[in-house]
């Protein structure tokens, strides 16, 4: 996915891009602070499936050195003439397990969460018309995916897509994380989890709500230091939370 890689390499700079695959063009857009919203349904894409993909890659020492080098050069431009430092690579790559989840509220007033924690995988053909598939611990592009049944789009009052760290080091700043919303007509709407604070354990990524007959995604990218209950309080879902665990997979 070219625009995803442009995000990883470009340090979060917003780009709009047409990707050509097999002679066909697909449109990709990245939501940013300056351009935070995008329609997810339109004429010809009111039904079918909206897919939400979670992808990430761990940052290497080279990534940190490059980023820190740019910042240092901007502060001290004359240091470019100094001999390069020789030092060991003591920064290990943290082991992180990112998980995709979604808080939902339907028009009938029912509320809940779809997440792998507690085995709350959802249901595609019955309420909440959301289904979580996969639990990838290796950060590949084919990892966790959330499916939204657009045949029942009128049942959605609001949906909040978020990412949390259940296991491992609470360090969003050790990885480049991207959530991609793939519409029914093949458009990619990407949201990079930029500027994470140290020790954050969860991030509200996108709020999806109906607007003038369409479902519209709004970039949030708001971090919390706790878990789902903090995300709940931030957006006023009003649910009761308890301790949970992931179910083992066959």
From TrEMBL:
What is the protein name for this chain? Tellurium resistance
Which InterPro entries does the record cross-reference, listed alphabetically? TerD
Q: Which source organism?
A: Streptomyces johnsoniae
Would you say which domain of life the source belongs to?
Answer: Bacteria
């Amino acid at each position: 996915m070219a625009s995803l890689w442009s995000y990883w390499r470009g340090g979060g700079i917003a780009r709009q891009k047409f990707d050509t695959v097999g002679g066909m063009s697909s449109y990709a857009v990245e939501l940013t602070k300056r351009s935070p919203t995008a329609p997810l349904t339109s004429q010809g894409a009111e039904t079918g499936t909206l897919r939400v993909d979670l992808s990430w890659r761990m940052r290497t020492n080279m990534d940190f050195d490059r980023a820190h080098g740019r910042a240092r050069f901007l502060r001290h431009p004359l240091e470019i003439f100094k001999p390069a430092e020789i030092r060991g690579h003591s920064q290990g790559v943290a082991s992180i397990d990112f998980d995709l989840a979604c808080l939902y509220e339907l028009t009938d007033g029912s509320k809940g969460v779809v997440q792998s924690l507690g085995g709350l995988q959802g249901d595609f053909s019955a309420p909440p018309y959301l289904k979580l598939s996969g639990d990838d611990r290796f950060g590949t592009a084919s990892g966790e995916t959330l499916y939204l049944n657009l045949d029942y789009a009128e049942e959605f009052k609001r949906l909040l897509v978020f990412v949390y760290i259940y296991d491992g080091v609470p360090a969003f700043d050790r990885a480049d994380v991207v959530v991609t919303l793939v519409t029914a007509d093949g458009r990619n709407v990407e949201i990079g989890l930029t500027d994470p604070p140290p020790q954050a354990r969860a991030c509200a990524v996108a709020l999806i709500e109906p607007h003038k007959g369409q479902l519209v995604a709004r970039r949030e990218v708001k971090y919390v230091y706790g878990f789902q209950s903090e995300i709940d309080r931030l957006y006023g879902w009003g649910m009761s939370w308890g301790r949970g665990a992931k179910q083992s997979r066959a």
